Amino acid sequence: MREGRPSPDALLAQARREAPGRGRLKIFLGAAPGVGKTYEMLTTAHARLREGVDVVVGVVETHGRPETEALVAGLEVLPRRAAPYGGAALAEMDLDGLIARKPKLALVDELAHTNAPGSRHPKRYLDVEELLQAGIDVHTTLNIQHVESLNDVVAQITRIRVRETVPDSILDRADDIEVIDLSPGDLIQRLQEGKVYLPHQAERALKHYFSPGNLTALRELALRRTAQQVDDQLVTHMRAHAIPGPWAAGERVLVCVSEDPRSAGLVRYAKRLADRLRAPFTALTIESRRSAQLSEAERDRIADTLRLAERLGGETATLPSQGRIADDVVGFAREHNATHVVIGKSTRSRWFELLNGSVVHDLLRRSGPISVHVVAGEEVAGEPAAHKGVPTAAPPRPSLLPYAAALAAVAAALGLGLALQSSLGHESTDLVFLTAVVAVAVRFGLYPSLAAVVASSLAYNFFFLPPLYTFTIADPTNVVALFFFTLVAVVVSNLAARVRAEATISRTRSKATEALYGFSRKLAGCGTLDDVLWATAYQIALMLRLRVVLLLPDNGSVTVMAGYPPEDFLDEADLAAAKWTFDHGRPAGRGADTLPGAKRLFLPLRTGRGMVGVVGLDGDKPGPLLTPDQRRLLDALADQGALAIERVHLVEDLDRARRSAETDRLRQALLSSLSHDLKTPLAAVLGAATTLRDLRDALDPEATGDLLATMIDEAERLNRFIANLLDMTKLESGALAPNLAPHDLGEIVGTALERAAKILAHHRVALVLRPGLPSLSLDAVLMEQVLFNLLDNAAKYAPEGSLVRVEGWREGDAVVLRILDEGEGIPAGDEERIFDTFYRVRKTDRVRAGTGLGLAISRGFVEAMGGRITARNRGDGPGAAFTLIVPVPRAALEDAA
Questions:
Q1: DSSP class per residue in 869-880
Q2: Smallest Cα–Cα separation from 348: which of 356, 337, 339, 336?
Q3: Which helix (H) or strand (E) is 357 found in, with range?
Q4: E-state strands within 652-785
Q5: Is the dihedral of CA 501, 504, 507, 508 positive or negative?
Q6: Which of 135-139, 255-259, 335-339, 388-392 has the highest mean pLDDT?
Q7: What one-character DSSP code corresponds to residue 5?
Q8: What is the pTM of this model?
Q9: Average pLDDT over the chain, rounded to whole?
Q10: What SS3 class is residue 229?
């Protein structure tokens, strides 16, 4: 956006957003269910309808709320399509019908919804994308917990992992985001009044997800994510319209970094300022022609300062100079809407500032509405550049070859000028020398081109200006001509040399950036530690042309984990140097200050959390292994590799913590089950037996029969529990091998119902199996146990007198068996968790306790026989529905054909 020109990237983004034929997307974003997103979307739709806009409801979930249903009543509602799934028909949005209807505005509720299997798109947000491509404006709703990048954060806050997510790119492409905000107290009151969930569901929600702390954290996430989107849109708008800015809608801090030793202090000051303002900060360094003249220590200091800014949470930017440094800084600040610029106070003399100008004074004059913080040196006194501990190769000595080439070019120009003099005259031969000067400047740089200027001036004077063959100039006009020729030659050579230097810097930076970007993408795709180590070793060896080994800590020492070329052995001197580097975080080995007798040079791999490993380098050339530029490149590669190694370690630590937590949970659940599910039936058996022994003569036959029945029932209950434990042990050890054979499903269902007759004695049972079901390849014993566990689960959770329905039918190449009850149903989000080992749904006191093994065993048995089992709440009333899908054997399919 320099010189009042719009940013091409911003214009491209705006053009894509405003492309003709594409609809506009508005998202009503909420912190949690129940804040009123759907209500507000419908209210806005009515307002648009009164304006004459064609509005159609594609899909809106009212959840039985009267006020929401009242708003839907006044709008055109597109009929939903029926999507068959598991023997039932799910109501889904009719995407084709909506595109054919083509309203101006479509209402699509619940953007994160997962469509029924067999739909054109697996997710509803993909349906919305197709509607937008068709030129239809869409209003939709979304809760913050469904945003992909915030999934882990929400899980950490609520202890609930949301499985339906929407990519962040959908929010980034949204034209408008409206936050529907409600205070935690008001939302909890709505829950208690039954305006969000049914009473029994609301009670569970208040105990878990809808706590005041959770709601406050989710509310902040929603507001921050929307503020981020608004800020990005503001910056894009300013850059697309070449608005100089800044617009102080949000604070941003920019700190100027140079080779000055105080730059590190400036970065820390900018970090403190950004924290006070609750704003992001960026560290900026400008590369000018003077940058090429910096010493290696000064270049190292700039690189270290930029890394410091990144460690402190800031962004970094390197900008090639376009002229005045102050103009570059102000242009960058306006382009990125920075409201504060931090720069160090100049320590140069007045004489230097008069000759060369002052960046600080220029910045103050050109900053306009931007606040400039000129920080005194005493307040931010930094430290000198850290000693690297490794000598780098000295820059190559200036070669005489470019100067010889410059003289040869002048000699060639002289010969050509003498040949053309008769036709052009000596007045035009200076252009031949000027061409030679430019060619030398482009090929060899500034100083050889200045040598060519001197040689050309002398040759032009000696061979072409009268009197010839002498350096005397008789005509005063020739003196002026020679002067301006020399002046023009100096200026042109200087400009050509500058262009060459900038092109060289740009090529070098582009090549390094491309390599680092490719390396970062390669690391992002690595899932294991071995892959990360191999990629890191290979990339370092490829870019530095050295042999590389990577060592990681192992039992108090360091061990070679990867190398390129492959290397797995180090002598004692190398191991000692590597161990010293890991312990002290400083280089050791070949060419270093410590243990220089080692064959390899060892450098630390560290992150903000500390040391993660050591990289060893070896080459065939004598002397220092690295040039200064290679050392800085190695620092960048090592930083990326160390972060990738730490990421893998963090994932492993998280997995270990998760396994440990799961082990503890299973241990506690097992102890609880053993203490309760073993102790309770044993106590009942012991009590009944003791009563029979002590009061046998006083008991009538009916009482004696009741006691014996109690003993038998509790013994059977204990037997079932022990059988479940043994079955789960077989499943988890992989020792379960089903004995598959053709069986009639009706016979197995009948046997399971007979076995469960005592458990279902207080329930009504309905069996509906469609005739003509084929024989299935099953293990009859395992399948009977599966059905018994499901019937036992239905009896536990459904009230007495309710109906337990078993129905089966054929659907394509499979047979579907479903067991339905009339209980309270499955808590939202627990449809998969109920199949976890020892997981128990919270239940009322009237529900007898379970072990938490029955459903886990059922899924294991069904999957071992090649089938599937799922659970969901019934759509036609209260209760749960468990669906078993068993494939029809190939032989039965061939017979049917």
A1: EEEEE-SSSSSE
A2: 356
A3: none
A4: 741-743, 764-769, 776-778
A5: negative
A6: 135-139
A7: P
A8: 0.48
A9: 79
A10: helix
